[in-house]
Amino acid sequence: MRLFGHKMSLKAQIGLAIVVINAFAALLVPVIAPYPEADVLGRAWAGPSAEHWLGLDNLGRDVLSRLLYGARLSIGLSLLITALSFSLGVFGGFSAAVLGKTADMVLSRIVDLFLSMPALIFAMVVLSVLGTDLVVLVVTICLLDATRIFRVSRALAMNIVALDFVEVARLRGEGLWWIVRREVMPNAVLPLVAEFGLRFCFTFLFISALSFLGLGIQPPSADWGSMVKDYSAMIMLGVPTVFYPAGAIALLTIGINLVVDWLTSQTAAEH
Amino acid sequence: MNDRQRDTTLLDVQGLRIEALTPSGAAAVLVENASFTLKRGEVLGLIGESGAGKSTIGLASMNYTRAGCAITAGRILFDGRDILNLSEREGRALRGARIAYIAQSAAASFNPALTIGRQVCEVAIRHKILGKAEAKQRAVDLFRTLELPDPETFGNRYPHQASGGQLQRAMAAMAMITEPDLLVFDEPTTALDVTTQVEVLAAFRKLIRDRGTAALYITHDLAVVAQIADRIMVLRHGKTVETGDADDILQHPRETYTKQLVAERAAAMIGHFIADNHAGEAPVLSLKAVVASYSSLNRAVSDVSLELKRGETLAIVGESGSGKSTLARVVVGLLPRESGDIDFKGERLPPALHERSRDTLRRIQMIYQIPDLALNPKQTLLEIIGRPIEFYLGKSKEEARERVLALLRQIELPESYLLRKPPALSGGQKQRVCIARALAAEPDIVICDEVVSALDPLVAEEILGLLRRLQETLGLAYLFITHDLSTVRRLANKVAVMRKGEVVAYGETSEIFSPPYHPYTKLLLSSVPEMRSDWLDEVLQMRSFRD
User: Fold this and answer.
1) Max Cα separation, chain B?
2) How high is the ipTM of this complex?
3) B388 vs A172: CB contact, 8 Å cut-off?
């Protein structure tokens, strides 16, 4: 099997399969979920049965349905945030690399300011002050992530800009936009895609962490982080429900990392 | 060492076959059926172009192969022992103590964070061959033999505090510290300037002769190997072309390929000068008292005045650091000049790139030293060569495509290469593409910055031939920057010799390269290796008289 013109290893194929299954689950929720996510259907903590494969939760909602709806919200939100933060971070990073010393200085110091604060603490403060609105959540995590992507893409672009073919384009009199789009970008795509996968994982875990702390996605919407929070206490009494959302988080993270590892090794092999 | 010992065989390689595993899974043969023997105290030169398998054989003699390669057939006896069957540990012990390797780039082989002395002594101490104090003493002795400055304290320096030539000699000291029986030299002087090369070569030869060490000397330069090797083995595409006494090979080569190599190297030294037949014409480019620098402390280019006419080649020669590449950057506007004037077709050129019009940019094109870096690996040849046509000449996609096909024919590449990307081309082909890209802009001047120094001799000769033909048909003016004097002789009408940012000699090639010489020109000229085994002795003798 091939992806981006490279042969995929078995591990990469397993990773890709996990990611694709998760993506389908998230996309097809309304069709495949047996029950709505917020409906109370029976006794709390009822065990697995023919109607409810994974049992019911603390309020008597169907765990399987919540897991599927959770996939849609967690994955969708992470994808949105990662896409936004990548646009911002790559744009800033490339600008710093090609616009010259002053622009680089200004942009890098602003980013340093953000990086100097622990991300989780920063997010908790902002969300506590501004309220746990979905828009606030997206913007906050997006800004935090963008600073890290700025660092990576700046370094990447710096290495490419130093090569002779970029100088050739400069000597020809090409504009900056053309140089970034045609000379720098094609050589940066593969490492950036690998970074995208990793960042997606981090964002996903970050939202789960915030939800676990009660600052992320609010009930009754289902998401894997808040499900872990809601179900974790019952593990003391021998109810294993918490393992389903926790396992889903772990599985998706591993899947993405398998694909990313393979992509990174392809990038390394190219150089 | 007595004569009996000298006659014993140290290294016996028979039927060696080395294969590489390519990504598609099929094996490519790197070396096929290589056989040779090396007696104690003897030096065997391995000659060939890149890809000939000479480094692979050199490394295999140490029972080492690069990642992805394997020895699949043959036998290597070192001092009577079959070294291919050694365990990893025994192999390491052998490599450290009895066989040593000297790489092409010493600068890349030294750890910048440790002193040279510590790194030189490391092997001997690690293998418990010498104690710390003994190792240090022997290092000092070696530094002295190799004529390094302040041998007592040289070891305290860090790699960045030594020059390229000094590091290369320090690397030889590192290899010799355990007094190995066999040294493998892998292009050890290729990265050095000619003047430095002479010193390093002399130091290596003295070291080998004094201690009676056997050596494999890998190089692509016949004249270099002539100074140091007793016997020569010529390789091509992994196969042995011929083996014989050094003098025999150089004077009476039997095989066609060897004859070609020898003839190419000999042509570099003779041949008539190209006359200056452009007297009286107005110059295309003229520099007057140009000054430029990277920092306020030292000038990279000072007070340079030169003229270049249509259809003419002006060569700028000098060692690395002489400011010749900087001069090119000043002319194209990458480094704005501080003072002085540059006139292009009678009009003043603005100092900085962004102040120049698109048409001016079009008329001055540049070709780089390393084509790998000068071509975007993700673009097709159509995009690379077609872009200047669309950008400068405002042609449509179809017109540009037609023009690119014409240019491909002109640089002698098949039209089927149109949609290939640079990684699928050889080094020489890539440089041809760079030339085509420059031609696509229909320039008046082409600046060639060391355009053939990264290429194999025969490929370089083809590229130079192409440049010459293009000049004749298109009337281009070349500003030809190089450190290779043989190229200058064959290509340039005029020469400017640069040293420390200044032009020390300037005039017609025939004038500059015939007596009376400027002392520095003479030093440069006398440093170009010649294909006689007594050349090095003569040069050293001449210099000792002068000193």
Assistant:
1) 78
2) 0.78
3) yes
